[in-house]
Amino acid sequence: MVERIKAFSEKYQVQVYLEPGEAVAIGTGVLVSEVLDITWNQVNQAILDTSATCHMPDTLEMPYRPDILGAAEAGALAHSYRLGGLTCLAGDVISDYSFAQPLSVGERLIFEDMAHYTMVKTSTFNGTKLPALAVWNSQSDDLKIIKQFNYSDFRQRLS
To answer: Is the pTM of this model over 0.90?
Structure first.
């Protein structure tokens, strides 16, 4: 394959880039979210500090439902919730999930397998902050913040 790519590149005088694809990124990265509020409107709802619109647009663009550590399909466990984002967009809904225990304000939810697509498709719609990027060493339990976003990052994306 490498030889074919080199030959193609030389023949057409182009530089070839290969997307690493799902095989490299599958099962990597988590998005940690915090429950901001619990409410009810026909179903139990939990408002999160993350957003389908801003942080995981694949949940809106295609039938993708990210896994949450310890959660299941709605109705499978005792306490079901519709998880929603913090923007003003009515469709900022992640999906319905169930949990063994009731959710509470301040509780953290861990969305799994969020490194592919999610990181490159984020937005700051409605002034929503981007999550910090961090690397966790599972052997030493060290957490290193790689990048934190602020207002200047938001402003630069507008121009």
So the answer is: no
